[in-house]
Amino acid sequence: DQESEDDLSASRTSLERQSPHRGNTTVHVCWHRNTSVSMIDFSIAVENQLSGNLLRKFKNSNGWQKLWVVFTNFCMFFYKSHQDNHPLASLPLLGYSLTIPSESENIHKDYVFKLHFKSHMYYFRAESEYTFER
C-alpha cells in the first residue's frame, strides 16, 4: 500500500531505506494521488515555507508529541528538534483537507487542526494563536 508512505509513525530506519526524495517530490505525489498543481500554486509554494513547533496527537491516546516541523513545497517534514539534520518522517499534503476537529472527536484543546486524506487523519496542536493562524 503506497499510502503507508504518509504514515507519521514510520521509523527513521524505514525512511532511510527509501530512495532520498522518492516519496516527497511534487511529481511523485501528484502521480500517486492522480492530481496536478498549477504553475501559480507551484510558484507560491516554492517561495513560502514555515517552520516551528507543533504537537502531534498520538493515535488512540490523549498524549501529544512535540515536533519541529518544516512546511515546504507541499510537504511537512518532522524532526525531534530544530537541530536535527534528517527528518523523522514527512507528510506530502497534496489532496489533504484541513479542518478543525468536531465536538464528537473529543479533542478539548485550543489551537488544534486536523489534516485528513481518505482514511489518513492527523491532529496537530499549535502552542499559540499566532502559530495556529500561520
Architecture overview:
By secondary structure, the protein is of the alpha+beta class. The chain has a single domain, classed as Roll (PH-domain like), CATH 2.30.29.30. The chain has helices spanning 12-17, 26-33, 39-47, 129-133; strands at 49-57, 64-72, 75-79, 89-92, 97-99, 112-117, 120-125. Strands 4-3-2-1-7-6-5 form a 7-stranded antiparallel sheet. The longest helix is centred in the first third of the chain and has 9 residues, at 39-47. The protein is globular.
Q: Which percent bin holds the helix content?
A: 10-25%
Report the principal-axis shape.
globular
What's the CATH first level? Mainly Beta
The largest pleated sheet is described as: 7 strands, antiparallel
Low-confidence stretches: 1-6, 9-22
Instruction: Kindly state the number of beta strands.
Output: 7
**CATH third-tier fold name:** PH-domain like
**Structural class of the secondary structure composition?**
alpha+beta
Order of helices and strands: HHHEEEEEEEH
Strand arrangement within the widest β-sheet reads 4-3-2-1-7-6-5
- What fraction of residues sit in β-strands? 25-35%
Radius of gyration: 15 Å
CATH architecture: Roll
Query: Could you name the CATH homologous superfamily?
Result: Pleckstrin-homology domain (PH domain)/Phosphotyrosine-binding domain (PTB)
Q: Helical element count?
A: 4
Provide the domain count.
Answer: 1
Distance between the termini: 32 Å
GO molecular function: guanyl-nucleotide exchange factor activity
Domain PH: 47-134
Protein name: FARP1 protein
InterPro entries: PH-like_dom_sf (IPR011993), PH_domain (IPR001849), RAC1-GEF (IPR051835)
